[in-house]
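Dear colleague,

Thank you for sharing your sequence with our group. We've completed the structure prediction you requested, and as agreed, I am returning the results in plain text so they can be pasted directly into your records. Please verify that the sequence below matches your submission; if there's any discrepancy, let me know and we will rerun it promptly.
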Amino acid sequence: MFLPDLVVRSRRVVTPRGTRAAAIHVRSGKIVGVLDVDDVPAGCPIDEAMDSVVLPGLVDPYVYVTEGLDATTRAAAAGGITTMIAMPAAPVGSGENAGPEAVCAVDVGFWASIKPENVGELATIAQTGVFGFARVAASESDLRAIMPAVRWLDAIMLVSDVSDVSDTSDTASDIAVIGLCREFRTRTHLVRLSSTDLLAPLFHARAARAPITAQTSPYDLYMVASDATREARELLWAALAGDVIQAIASDRSPLPLSLPIAWTEAQPRGYTFDQIAQWMCVAPARLAGLDRKGAVDVGYDADLVVFDPDAGFTAKLAPFLGRRLRGVVERTYLRGTRIYENGAPFPSPCGKLLRRRQ
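Please find the predicted structure tokens below.
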């Protein structure tokens, strides 16, 4: 029997079967065992995380790369994010996107941004390994041209908002997306809920088994500017708990703060780390079709986050500047390699370019 390369053990390991004391055995970048907490072979390197929570590496399914892959992925690693699916600043396969392993601290995949005039090229684009297709600020006519082709490829369509509907409000625009999803049966993901008025139509669509999912952001789950936004915040939390919304993703919020913000607001409401893992690890991995990411389980990539849930700190990044947050990412592992340790210099990048399986 081969010894593991590393054992990470804690009294609180978040697994698909609940949070429990366990020793995570890692070999060649994979989890090869989630065993009794005292089951540690002699001479094996150990990360003693006993008083911290060990979660799966977070999966961020919709990231804008505005400061380059190097800076963005380092920020992700510092926030416990080990996998991100990005909107590229340049076409996939060109420039920095051609060889992200040279600069990326975490694993990176890409969505393809498409236009109606590119519909005939979707099959070719899909062969590059993109995880799906995104259309930001689309018109209804655009989506009517694109969505049947995306469904034919058995791919997913990400939509931000829709214009040129008869009612020009944001809510009516998103309701149009739901209607098109039900019409074409195209897998559809709403990356930005424009209004909580959308929650009821979204609930009914999912109850009718429409292939639609949605995400919200740490910003929307935290910020309160008025009584109206306070009510909206509570509705979003309830929608997460009720599986109307499936994922929490950073969007344009600072990546290093996503997990602490989520925990700061989740813990007083009685939500657990099992639910946090569902919203920030399991559901985003499922969205992108990543079958070896998002869980602490045998056969999965050894992507792990060691998180101190009781430590507090004052945020130094806008728009959360000066706010007290709860929870600190202490260490982040990517396939068993420590890629972040609080207060330590970053090691050499070891992220990989991820491609959708054909």
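Summary note from our side: The first strand starts at residue 6 and ends at 15.

Kind regards,
the structure core
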